[in-house]
Design brief:
The complex is a heterodimer of chains A (130) and B (255). In chain A, 28% of the residues lie in helices and 27% in strands. Chain A has 130 residues and is of the alpha+beta class. A 3-stranded mixed sheet of chain A has the order 4-8-7. A two-stranded antiparallel sheet of chain A has the order 2-6. A two-stranded antiparallel sheet of chain A has the order 3-5. Chain B is of the alpha+beta class. Chain B starts with 5 loop residues before the first helix and ends in a 7-residue tail after the last strand. Classes of the chains: A alpha+beta (130), B alpha+beta (255). The interface between A and B is large, with 64 and 77 residues.
């Protein structure tokens, strides 16, 4: 539930200007690099049978792989339960068995998921209310 | 040109040196007066695009800065004050303290004595607040655990979040972006916060696409390649700006 509350605005002291100048004077650059499993690593996985978006969310949390899917296109699909010491690709094969979903590894750490009957281009859909 | 004697040159140099020294001392004094306007030590921190950085604010308090963020911190015996000039930060005050933490973000002030919360400055008049634990006071209102507040000059809109949604919103703290039915336009806007190369939707038929998944915030290449599986392609004739990737629905114009 949403509700609106008045917000008190603090005074704007000159110190904030000084702080802004100080911030503008500083810069540093480090790209964030983080490691994750690849599609060949065996992992202990346990993913319940469920609607595809929820199952895939559990899949990327447990494997650390990058995953992309068209949310509305797969939301009515369901996947099978998987459990055991599996590599991520084995897990996807078992999850998607008989589901009508398929996958494509973009690289060792990235997989895209889509319905087996592929659309040539995304279909324009009305924006969902937030 | 007339020659200037050795003594004369020394006098001129000394005068120039003295003038420069006075000017330097004056600016240093002026800057010092600014910085110590309230006799508080000032620490300033910033991050570049794609950078994450964790800093110690004081005893039991820390902040993690997200991409393209600027933060200035002053500490006194009574208060730790952090000015979030731009960007986003996760603040942690790990246990109840007599010395509160006050965060100034945009035009708003937030105060807490023990909590974990994230603040994002969208602009000077629009700020987002997520409270993961504890509670944060904003003006006369209190934002509690698992609440999201969108704060603007018109007031504050509060929304309760599930734990899973809170975790999803805070994936940036580990360098990740997680989507769950988000419009492609929103997902692209998030990627653009972290990268020099900007994604642009150049075909309105793909703007209504909703996506799910999880990516490293800086892995634009893999994201664009994965989008092809969803029927979204980068334009091949877009050589004018190498830092812009325009996305369309037609495979015929694929790179």
């Amino acid at each position: 539930m949403s509700r609106r509350t008045p917000v008190q605005q603090p005074a704007s002291p000159a110190r904030r200007v000084v702080m802004g100048v100080g911030i503008a004077a500083l810069a540093a650059a480090f790209a964030v690099r983080r490691s994750a499993a690849s599609k060949l690593d065996k992992l202990r996985l346990r993913i319940a049978a469920s609607a595809a978006p929820a199952a895939l969310a559990e899949f990327f949390r447990q494997t650390g792989l990058q995953v992309l899917f068209d949310f509305d296109a797969i939301r009515n699909f369901t996947t099978r339960e998987v459990s055991g010491q599996l590599d991520p690709e084995e897990a996807l094969i078992r999850m998607f068995e008989g589901s009508g979903l398929t996958y494509e590894f973009i690289n060792e750490r990235t997989v895209a998921v889509r319905p087996r009957a592929r659309l040539s281009a995304p279909v324009a859909r009305p924006t969902r209310p937030t | 040109m007339a020659r200037i004697g050795h003594a004369r040159r020394k006098t001129i140099f000394a005068a120039l040196f003295a003038t420069a020294a006075v000017a330097l001392m004056s600016s240093m004094t002026l800057m010092s007066a600014w910085v110590h306007a309230e006799s508080l030590p000032l620490q300033v921190y910033s991050t570049a695009l794609g950078e994450l950085r964790t800093i110690v604010l004081g005893e039991h308090a820390s902040a993690q800065l997200n991409t393209d963020t600027g933060l200035a911190v002053t500490n006194s015996a009574q208060l730790c004050e952090a000015v979030l000039d731009h960007g986003e930060a996760l603040f942690e005050l790990r246990r109840a303290s007599l010395r509160p933490l006050r965060v100034l973000a945009g035009a708003f002030a937030m105060t807490t004595r023990a909590s974990v919360f994230s603040v994002r400055v969208r602009d000077a008049r629009n700020v987002d607040l997520l409270v993961r634990s504890g509670q944060v006071t904003v003006g006369t209102a209190t934002v509690r655990q698992y609440q999201y507040a969108r704060i603007s000059s018109g007031g504050m809109v509060l929304r309760d979040l599930k734990a899973a949604d809170m975790d999803r919103q805070l994936q940036w703290t580990i360098g990740q972006l997680e989507f769950s039915g988000d419009p492609l336009t929103d997902a692209i806007a998030e990627f653009n916060r972290y990268n020099d190369r900007k994604l642009v939707i150049a075909d309105r038929t793909i703007s209504s696409l909703t996506i799910g998944g999880k990516f490293s915030a800086t892995d634009v290449d893999a994201f664009v390649k994965a989008l092809r599986e969803l029927g979204v392609y980068p334009l091949s004739d877009d050589g004018a700006d190498p830092n812009t990737i325009r996305l369309v629905a037609s495979q015929r114009r694929e790179k």
